[in-house]
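We emphasize that the prediction below concerns an isolated chain of 194 residues; any contacts that depend on oligomerization or on bound cofactors are therefore not represented. The input was used exactly as deposited, without trimming of termini.
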Amino acid sequence: MPSYRIRTATPEDADAARVVMLDTVYHDFRSGYVPRWHGDIIDIEAAYLVPPRHTLLVAVEEGEGPEGSGGTVVATAALDSRGPAHPPNPRWLAERYPSGETAQLRRVYVRPGHRRRGLARALVRELLDFAAADGGYRSVYLHTDPSVTGAEPFWRSLGKVVCDERDAAEVAAGDPAGTVHFEIPVPLGIPAPR
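Result of the prediction step, given as a token string:
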């Protein structure tokens, strides 16, 4: 069984993290790169590494990768302070999760050969710790594509559905793909115990 280390990404991790993310949007989502949805993937540093209230975590398989690299990035998870935008999301959802007060979980992606080993859950726990330590977030939000194998059950095990766009009223509002929006409960404003 491989051993993994989860850590905050550095600028040197940006290329490897980008590859994991792009592979996911091409192979799992089958959407390919869409600039309005995936611009953060191209400029990882500006999206996650520079802003103090944002972060990108990587899971590294230790003992693998180029000599001296410290391992191969096999999973990513990010958090930023942007709430869901309207449009394309329902207006009430954007109002419920405003930017600046909302920690949005993003890019929780694990390479297929490394799934079912607890990496995504461990990465999310670290993101929740980061959000709690920030002290300024009022809620933790994310959305997922339920057509991706395992995504919806995973998020349902951690949070509660606040909007399922597969429902007739939400589809009529403009999302035929059926995005599912979640809130993850976490005591914010105080660091979670380790």
